[in-house]
């Protein structure tokens, strides 16, 4: 087991380096950049993606990321009324006075020292921003994961026990629908029908709490919080329960068809004791051991579009806004942190498999 863990830990470094490197150079190739965003704010202009693309085409389609360190003031921003001296100061401020390879190596050095820098446009460090936005994403991830497991496990067991029945067929229809409908589309439908879109105004359209939240009593705060969380959590729930339901059903069916179940029935053991005393315990091993990975998936990836649609000020919305404004420190630092967490939690999930099921062995992987 130890050689396998060490091997996985060693592979974390090249994997993380490859992901960060590819994303760094892809972002540099994209039109626009933090300097153009800042100049647009200073001059009161909004630069859209279409305008950035048109400017890049006007520059001859160089594909150098819109704003390279060798770009002239005219190439950076046309008609903005910004002096060349100020542009040079902005280039130093954002590090564009250095070649791209130097910026890349400096970023890797800072990341290795856990120095993630400050946001270009929020006047805060990246770590402060993550701490500030994390509670919102954790709320979505925790509630969604809990509800997914509470719904999917009983439903999957019921489908396995009644395999081939009318209940199994009809529930499969809803499971397939839940798997097929994109989360963002379901969120939009919920807004249209229940958040004042065209029909009912039962739930708030945006935010995690109401404006007068500070002056509410404790019970009112709890109700207000749950009221705001209802639609976002339901939106994420529809996309998360389908795969876990089928995993639970297939795992349960696999255990039901094993020889020890047939032997237990031949000995006269009741069906209830067989199902919940033996089959349930064995079939739930793979479901329970996958909990860490499922939670992280809900926390860092599943909530992105939901936070944007419902204007929830969490990590997903922060990442989206950072990408739109080309806030490079936030973009690359969060990518680095979350990728590292995902890789480490993947190893933890593998270890969890062996803890809950001693039959699993990594000897073959160790030899490889």
Automatic annotation (TrEMBL):
PROSITE patterns: ABC_TM1. The keyword tRNA processing does not apply. GO terms for cellular component: plasma membrane. Residues 134-349 form the ABC transmembrane type-1 domain. It is a multi-pass membrane protein. CDD domains: TM_PBP2. It is found in: Cell inner membrane; Cell membrane. Pfam families: BPD_transp_1. Keywords: Cell inner membrane, Cell membrane, Membrane, Transmembrane, Transmembrane helix, Transport. The keyword Cell membrane applies. The chain crosses the membrane at residues 9-30, 138-157, 169-195, 225-248, 285-310, 330-353. Its main location: membrane. GO terms for biological process: microcin transport; transmembrane transport. InterPro entries: MetI-like, MetI-like_sf. Residues 55-74 are annotated as: Disordered. Belongs to the binding-protein-dependent transport system permease family. This is Microcin C ABC transporter permease YejB. It comes from Geovibrio thiophilus. The gene is yejB.
């Amino acid at each position: 087991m130890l050689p396998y863990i060490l091997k996985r830990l060693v592979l974390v470094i090249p994997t993380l380096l490859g992901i960060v490197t590819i994303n760094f150079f892809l972002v540099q190739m994209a039109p626009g950049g933090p300097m153009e965003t800042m100049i647009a704010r200073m001059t009161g202009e909004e630069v859209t993606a279409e305008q950035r693309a048109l400017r890049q085409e006007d520059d001859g389609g160089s594909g150098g990321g819109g704003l390279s360190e060798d770009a002239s003031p005219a190439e950076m921003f046309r008609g903005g009324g910004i002096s060349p001296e100020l542009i040079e100061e902005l280039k130093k401020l954002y590090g564009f006075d250095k070649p791209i390879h130097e910026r890349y190596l400096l970023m890797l050095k800072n990341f290795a020292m856990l120095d993630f820098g400050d946001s270009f446009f929020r006047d805060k460090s990246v770590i402060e921003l993550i701490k500030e936005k994390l509670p919102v994403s954790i709320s979505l991830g925790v509630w969604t994961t809990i509800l997914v497991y509470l719904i999917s496990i009983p439903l999957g067991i019921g489908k396995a026990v009644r395999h081939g029945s009318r209940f199994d067929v009809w529930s499969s229809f809803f499971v397939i629908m839940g798997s097929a409908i994109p989360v963002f589309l379901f969120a939009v439908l919920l807004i249209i029908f229940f958040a004042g879109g065209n029909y009912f105004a039962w739930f708030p359209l945006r935010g995690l709490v109401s404006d007068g939240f500070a002056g509410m009593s404790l019970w009112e705060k709890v109700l207000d919080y749950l009221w705001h969380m209802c639609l976002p959590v339901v939106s994420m729930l529809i996309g998360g329960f389908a795969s876990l339901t089928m995993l639970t059903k297939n795992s349960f069916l696999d255990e039901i068809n094993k020889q020890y179940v047939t032997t237990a029935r031949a000995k006269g053991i009741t069906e209830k004791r067989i199902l919940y005393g033996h089959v349930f315990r064995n079939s739930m091993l793979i479901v329970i051991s996958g909990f860490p990975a499922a939670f992280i998936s809900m926390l860092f990836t599943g909530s992105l579009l939901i936070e944007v649609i419902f204007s929830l000020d969490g990590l997903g919305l922060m990442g989206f806004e950072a990408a739109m404004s080309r806030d490079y420190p936030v973009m690359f630092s969060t990518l680095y942190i979350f990728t590292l967490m995902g890789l480490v939690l993947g190893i933890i999930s593998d270890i969890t498999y062996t803890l809950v099921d001693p039959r699993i062995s990594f000897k073959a992987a160790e030899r490889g």
